[in-house]
Write a structure and sequence with these properties.
Jelly Rolls, 6-stranded antiparallel beta sheet, 10 helices
Length: about 290
């Protein structure tokens, strides 16, 4: 546990583009903030379970290995699960500064939603390093914590990389290729239809074998694997955007048979769609 620690930087806020307001972790009890909090907050759930409640939104359950990025001045409350299980070990860091708005805008797709963090241990270690640094409260801490909170934001983005709305980075890692770009656009436009590799290859002027080889060299996965990942990421988006949507309906919107969708979802995330909807997000594995 890291007891609540207030960062007392005097007037350093004026010269620091980013600064930490407070940091810590503890067994979280119920807390109500009717007027929100004056700084942006990052919460990390290490063990146990709890729920965030934000007016006008559905409840946000947090399970081990998940995070929540909460903008400043958003009224909210949060409380542990009352089921006699593990205590809710919740880590937190609040930050602000002139660079904070642009940083939050960069992470816009991550705010106000609970997401699994594939690099959770890295994030927790960085949280602990912030706590220990601020506890020293020396001149060095002023500047070093500013660097570290920025690095923590980069770690957060690195674990999620939400380049497109559907979550997939379509930028080839090798040299740019207009034909591949066209193929990726075609896949994104028709991922919920029956896409034959031969048709995609023909549409961009390649043989099947050459297209397959170029695609793997540029993206590190086969076209079929890419389409499956796109469908799986889209399913997570549908579950989040349409609370209560049936698993069968999601499968239909993805152009997949329900049984095949369930099997692929479990293979990808380590949990079934129904378990995911019941709050098992913290146990989801990252895509490989």
């Amino acid at each position: 546990m890291m007891p609540f620690l207030l960062a007392e930087f005097a007037n350093r806020e004026k010269s620091l583009p980013l600064y930490v307001c407070c940091v810590g972790s503890h067994e979280q009890k119920q807390l109500d903030r009717a007027n929100g909090y004056a700084a942006h907050q990052l919460f990390l759930s290490r063990s146990g379970r709890g729920t965030f409640r934000i007016e006008g939104r559905r409840d946000l359950p947090m399970t081990p290995g998940t995070f929540l990025l909460l903008p400043a001045d958003i009224p909210h409350s949060y409380f542990p699960e009352q089921s006699g299980g593990e205590p809710w070990d919740l880590g937190f860091v609040a930050f602000n500064g002139q660079a904070a708005p642009s940083l939050m805008e960069q992470m816009n797709e991550l705010v106000l939603t609970v997401l699994p963090a594939p690099n959770f241990h890295d994030l927790w270690d960085q949280l602990a390093s912030l706590w220990h640094l601020i506890s020293l409260n020396g001149e060095h801490a002023y500047w070093e914590t500013s660097k570290r909170i920025y690095n923590m934001a980069l770690t957060l983005l690195e674990g999620q990389t939400p380049i497109r709305k559907d979550g997939l980075d379509t930028s080839p890692v090798a040299q740019p290729n207009n034909a591949l770009d066209s193929a990726v656009k075609l896949i994104h436009d028709h991922y919920n239809e029956r896409l034959l590799l031969s048709n995609v290859a023909r549409a961009v002027g390649y043989s099947v074998q050459h297209f397959h080889r170029l695609f793997v060299a540029s993206f590190g996965v086969t076209p079929q694997q890419y389409i499956l990942r796109l469908r799986m990421r889209r399913s997570i988006q549908l579950f989040g955007d349409q609370p209560g949507i049936a698993v069968e309906k999601v499968a239909q919107q993805l152009g997949m048979e329900t049984s095949y969708f369930i099997r692929m979802f479990k293979r990808t995330y380590g949990t079934t769609p129904k378990q995911f909807l019941k709050g098992g997000r913290g146990n989801m594995k990252s895509e490989s």
